[in-house]
Amino acid sequence: MTAAFxxxxxxxxxxxxxxxxxxxxxxxxxxxxxxxxxxxxxxLLEVGCxxxxxxxxxxxxxxQAQFVGVDMSQTAIARGEAMRQQLGLTxxxxxxxxxxxxxxxxxxxxxxxxxxxxxxxxxxxxDTLLALCQRMLTANGIxxxxxxxLPGCHLRRMMWDMLQQHTSSINEPLQKIALAREFLTxxxxxxxxxxxxxxxxxxxxxxxxxxxxxxxxxxxxxxELNLPYSITDFxxxxxxxxxxxxxxxxxxxxxxxxxxxxxxxxxxxLAAGDVIRREQYLDxxxxxxxRQTLLCRQEVAIVRPAQADAVLQMxxxxxxxxxxxxxDTDIGKAHPGLRRFCASGxxxxxxxxxxxxxxxxxxxxxxxxxxxxxxxxxxxLATTQGGGNLHEDQHENLQEIRGTLCKxxxxxxxxxxxxxxxxxxxxxxxxxxxPCLNPLSRVQxxxxxxxxxxxRPSMVRLDSQLGLELVKLLNGKxxxxxxxxxxxxxxxxxxxxxxxxxxxxxxSAWWQDxxxxxxxxxxxxxxxMALLDA
Length: 534
Description:
By secondary structure, the protein is α/β, with parallel strands linked by helices. It has helices at 3-9, 22-31, 53-61, 74-87, 123-136, 153-166, 173-190, 196-211, 214-221, 231-240, 261-271, 275-286, 330-334, 354-366, 373-384, 395-415, 439-446, 465-472, 480-491, 508-516, 519-528; strands at 43-47, 66-71, 92-96, 109-114, 137-148, 243-248, 290-297, 315-317, 320-322, 339-343, 348-351, 371-372, 419-421, 451-453, 459-461, 496-497, 503-504. Strand 1, helix 3 and strand 2 (66-71) form a beta-alpha-beta unit. The longest helix is centred in the last third of the chain and has 21 residues, at 395-415. 37% of the residues are buried. Residues 42-149 form the Methyltransferase domain.
C-alpha cells in the first residue's frame, strides 16, 4: 500500500504541535545569534501537513504572514481546504502533491517544518526535503524536522519487525490493526521469563496497546517504512545538503540539568566541545527515541552557548507554581530565603533571588498567556528603583539586574520550566462581557468535533456535555445573562443522573439554580484553555 493511499484509507488524527510554532523557533534562533523572522510577517512551509490544522491556527493568529502546506493525501487536503474556506483565510495555501514533484515557487521561506514525515518516507524523499530546505530557506531561516531516533528506537524497532512479519499478509487497515493488537496481547501474556528481554517486550507491548491511538498505531508502527537515525547520522545527512545543526525544538531535551555533577563533567569531556558529539552521548544516556531537530544554513555563524541578553526581547510562558512545601524541607529550613518553582512536567528550579522569584510567580499566574520579559523587568524596577529612568550611577546596577533576570529565565527555559517566544499568539486572559470562541474552534464544533484547537495553540478535548454546550454559545453576542438563559434551555434536554443512579429530566428552575454559580468558572476555564478571542 502506498503512503498516499494509506493516509487516504485511514485518516491520521489532526493534531497541533506547539514545539514547531514559529514564535518558539524564532526565540531559539535568536538565542543563538540568528536574526530569525517574527511570526507576524513570516513565510512558513509545512511538508506533510495533513489537513493543515497547524497552519489554519497560524494563519488565524498571524494574518500578515504567509503559510503554505503540502501533503500527498487528497482527502486530508480537501478537509483542510474546506476549513480554510469556512474561515475565509487568504494567507494560507494547501496543496495536494508529492513533494518530490511539487513546484514551491521562487520566494524563500523563513521556516520549513516537517513533523512525522522524515522516518516514514524513502531516503530519496528525505534527500528531497533536505535539498528543499537548503534551496528555499532564507539566510536566517530555520528548518524543523522530526524523526525516530537511535539508540532508543532500537527497542521499538524490535516490535516493528515482529509486527511487520505477523501482519504482512493483511492490507486492509482495520484488519491489520486488529491482528497486530491480538498479537501484542498474546506476546505480552506469553513472554513470562524473568529476563531483560522479556521485561522490554512486555513494556513495549503494553505501551503500544494502552497508549497508542489506532490510527497513529497504524501509520507509525505498522507502516511499511520506519527509519530511525542517530543524531550523528542525521546531522551528517543534513551537512551534505549545506545545513547545520542549530538545536532541538524541545530545548530542554538537550539540557544536562538532571545529570549528576560527575556525569555532566564526563559528558563534557567526551563531547570535547563538539555539539553533535554531546547530543549523541546524551542520547546514549537518555535512550532518546524521537528528535525534533532544528537546522539552519551551514554558513550561518551560530552563537554557542545561548545568549542570555537576547531573552530581554522575548516573552515567557509556563505552567509553573511555587512549591509551598519546600520551606519545610531540610534544604528549605537550612536556607530560609530559597524558593522552589515546579512545572507541570516535573521540571524544578530553586532561587534565592526575589526578582527571579517574582518573575516566575507572575509567569505562572499568567499562564497560558505569555508575558514580556522586558515588562517584568520594568515592573520590578518600578517597585524597587522608583521606576525605569535611572541616574547615571545606577546604570551598572540596572545591567546587573537585567543580566540576573535574563540568565535565570534562560536557565528555566533550558530546564523545561517555561518556554520563550517571539511575538507569541494573542488570546483572552479573562472573559469579556461578550465572550467569543475562536473561529477555528467554532468551525470544528460545526463539523461535529469535540477536540478543539486553542490559540496557544494546543488541543483541548471537551469531556462534558455542559462544557460542550457552553462553548457552542460563545459567539460574542451574548452577555452573562443571555448565556445563562441559553445554557439553561440547552441543558434541559439532557437527563441528569441522580443519587439513586436513575436518569431524570430537570426543570428550567433547577438548571437555573444549578448553573448560576458555575457559569463564570466555566468562562474562566475557557480562558485558561486559550479558547477565547482577545
